[in-house]
Amino acid sequence: MTVATIIPRAEHCISRDNIDDNALKVLYRLHKAGFRALLVGGGVRDLLMNHVPKDFDIATDAHPEQVKKLFSNCRLIGRRFRLAHIFFGREIVEVATFRAGYEGQTSDSLQDDAGRILRDNVYGDIEDDVWRRDFTINALYYDIADFSVVDYTGAMEDLKKQQLKLIGDPETRYREDPVRMLRAIRFAAKLGFSIHQASEKYIYELGHLLRDIPPARLYEEVLKLFHSGYALTCLGLLQKYQLFQYLFPQAGEHLEDSQFEEFIRYALESTDARVNEGKPITPAFLFAAMLWGTVTKLRDQYVEEDMPLSLAMQHAMSIAIKAQVSHTSIPRRFSMVMRDIWHLQYRFNHRNGRRAKSLLTHPKFRAAYDFMCIRNKAGELQDDSCEWWTRLQVMSSDQQEKILNPSRNSQTKKKTLKKKI
Q: What is the percent of the chain with per-residue pLDDT over 90, rounded to a whole number?
């Protein structure tokens, strides 16, 4: 049995003032009911790094059904991992029961032939639970009983070294859940940490296991990678560790084109800026950018075969999306927006009349406009489209009318002159 290092309150920087009030309520109620209750994971890590945690997860020796009895606002979820979600309005505090090892345990723990965990509801104590977590820095516990930090894996030292280290044998851990390779990329990008040599070695060797992960789950991981404010860094690491091809194989093929690579980098820089400024973002923009190289290539190919441009574009979009969803899911509500973004690129060529006026009021104008400006910035468009449409948006209605309908303005002037005569 591994002996934990206990860091007393006087020797660490975590204060209850920085812990969410609702998380504290859950911790205290579990503790008062006689259960062990600890904050665990990224919340503890972030508090120790003086970062603001995104969420506060709790680990306990209470079983999910026991947690539910204590909280009327509790809902049990999950089959692979049985969890308790405690609702405080829109806020959810997640409570997980300590888990034990799965070998030689009950039939409620199951793996496939490749070693991937399919179901994992074997309960244990904190000494068992710590070894089920992925990285050392995510296996720190904050004990509400005495406000100490509990470290079983040398995580405090890894925090000082700013390194990501898998708990246990890296090959086994990646085979249990190949998504851990993507999590390693995400944490390295987010925290600015390096990946421990032993932990990064098998990323190169086992990346192919991501092919077995359901597209719906990879879609969620893609959003975590590219919608958290460090998308550009994630892209570089995914390329370095040869994992990008399992998420966006079509984009991977076109990244060899320097212009498309520049376009993607500008698109991700724009996304990062919007995230960091608190502005809204949509998965449709990300996927539209990633598949743009394929769409334009197929479109040009069909046009060369004498297919009308509009029909060529329709076919190109459908084929690109169909190929992508075999790797990562794309909910229909976003694939429809992707089509709008792509279609509207051609309408930016119309600079007068009703078509230009109606484009300004199109629900997806802003996303399509940003997309067009990035194309312009990357050198794909060799005109003043971005500048012209940018100026138009800040004009008054009368000024817009003069720009968009010059012939009507000319006729109006002639009529005015005739009346004067």
A: 78
Q: How far is CA 381 from the centre of its chain?
A: 29
Burial of 120 (0-12, 13-18, 19+ CB in 10 A): buried
Residues ≥6 apart with Cβ < 8 Å to 182 = 210, 221, 225, 243
Averaged over 221-242, what is the pLDDT?
97
CATH 3.30.460.10 placement within the chain: 1-161
Please state, in angstroms and as integers, the Cα–Cα distance from residue 168 to each residue in 128, 198, 277, 283, 416, following that order: 12, 10, 39, 35, 85
pTM reported for the whole predicted model: 0.87
Catalytic residue among 61, 129, 134, 370: 134
Parts of the chain belonging to CATH 1.10.3090.10: 214-421
Strands (E), 171-309: 194-195
- Three-state secondary-structure class, residue 385: helix
Task: Look at residue 330 and give its three-state secondary structure.
Answer: coil
**CA–CA dist 271, 278 (Å, integer):** 11
CA 148, 154, 160, 165 torsion-angle sign: negative
Q: What percent of the chain has pLDDT over 70?
A: 91
Q: What is the mean pLDDT of residues 165-169?
A: 95
In whole angstroms, what is the distance from residue 23 CA to residue 403 CA?
A: 57
Question: Per-residue DSSP letters for 34-92?
Answer: T--EEEETHHHHHHHTTPPPS--EEEESS-HHHHHHH-TTEEEE-SSS-EEEEEETTEE
- Would you call 134 a catalytic residue per the annotation? yes
Has 57 been annotated as catalytic? Answer: yes
288 neighbors 338 (Cβ within 8 angstroms): yes
User: 135: which DSSP letter?
Assistant: B
The answer to whether residue 404 scores a pLDDT higher than 60 is yes
Average pLDDT, the chain: 90
Residue range 1-161, CATH number: 3.30.460.10
- Report the phi/psi class of residue 139: left, alpha or beta, with left for phi > 0 and alpha for psi in -120 to 50: alpha
Indicate which residue of 57, 61, 120, 129 is catalytic.
57
Catalytic residue among 55, 128, 177, 340: 55
Q: Which CATH architecture has domain 214-421?
A: Orthogonal Bundle (1.10)
pLDDT of residue 266: 97
